[in-house]
Write a structure and sequence with these properties.
Blueprint (H helix, E strand, L loop, with lengths): L1 E2 L4 E7 L2 E6 L1 H7 L2 E5 L6 E2 L4 E7 L3 E5 L2 E8 L1 H5 L2 H5 L7 E9 L5 H11 L1
Antiparallel strand pairs: 1-2, 2-3, 3-9, 4-6, 5-8, 6-7, 8-9
Length: 120
């Protein structure tokens, strides 16, 4: 699993297919999620651009795509029950993206942990 500086995680299922979710750090900062807005299947994403947002009792935050590609699946369970992300952020995916053509600078777990500590 890899991470972004905007606090999303990326799991490469195949070479050109990924799942994207919110890191535990992001969920902790946001607080309890009450609503998640996600793209539609077949939407095109650009690395570094917002593809949705997460609303918590504290704030609304954009969710950024770490990759460019086409949305191939949306986790409908999260749309119906955003609290699933709070319960298991590192295993609850939001979207799947196929035809990944580029990605932002991704951090491994140690680099991401160091980045989060430097932000505190």
């Amino acid at each position: 699993m890899k991470y972004t500086k905007s606090h999303e995680w990326v799991d490469f299922i195949e070479e050109k297919k990924v799942r994207i979710g919110l890191s535990a750090h992001a969920v902790h900062q946001l607080g309890e999620l009450v609503f998640v807005n996600l793209p539609e299947v077949d939407d095109e994403l650009e690395a570094g651009e917002s593809f949705g947002d997460a609303e918590s009792i504290k704030a609304v935050s954009d969710i950024y795509s770490p990759v460019s590609g086409r949305v191939s699946a949306v986790n409908e369970e999260v749309l119906d029950n955003p609290a699933l992300v709070n319960e298991a952020p590192e295993s609850t995916w939001l979207i799947e993206v196929e035809e990944v053509s580029e990605n932002e600078e991704l951090l491994d777990e140690a680099e991401y942990k160091s980045f989060c500590e430097s932000e505190a």
